[in-house]
Write a structure and sequence with these properties.
alpha+beta, about 130 residues, Trna Endonuclease, Chain: A, domain 1
Length: about 130
């Protein structure tokens, strides 16, 4: 069980790094990563076109996937972002904006990462304004 938890955390860490690089290539500026408060956590805080983006990253590692394709109906990491999690992210985002006295617009996005640790290939999908 501990080994599985370690592997899960490592996959999540790699997925967040891949997602950050993906967002930067799309013109996002990373403000902060792994913003944690007792009431919630945000994987990536970024900015693009004057809008602050609070990004939840969900990573799926599936070593048996030989071809990571855009359409994989059985494997959708973004579907693992449940309404309760989105609510915590939104609350944390609001408190972050108030705490930094930032009056810009903000939104919650999700990046789904397909990660194959054997081939070292990854594919990302960005879902904007999920709330």
């Amino acid at each position: 069980m501990v080994i599985n938890d370690k592997k899960r955390k490592e996959v999540g860490r790699i997925g967040e790094s891949v997602a950050a690089e993906f967002l930067q290539r799309k013109g996002f500026r990373i403000i902060e990563r792994n913003y944690r408060k007792p009431w919630g956590e945000i994987d990536i805080i970024a900015e693009k076109n004057g809008v602050v983006r609070f990004v939840e990253v969900k990573t799926l590692s599936h070593e048996n996937i030989t071809d990571i394709s855009r359409e994989m109906p059985d494997y959708r990491p973004e579907e693992q972002v449940h309404p309760a999690k989105l609510h915590r992210i939104a609350r944390t985002a609001e408190l972050y904006m108030n705490g930094t006295r930032d009056s810009r617009e903000y939104q919650v996005d999700v990046v789904g990462v397909f990660l194959n640790t054997v081939t070292r290939k990854a594919r990302c999908r960005l879902f904007e304004q999920v709330l």
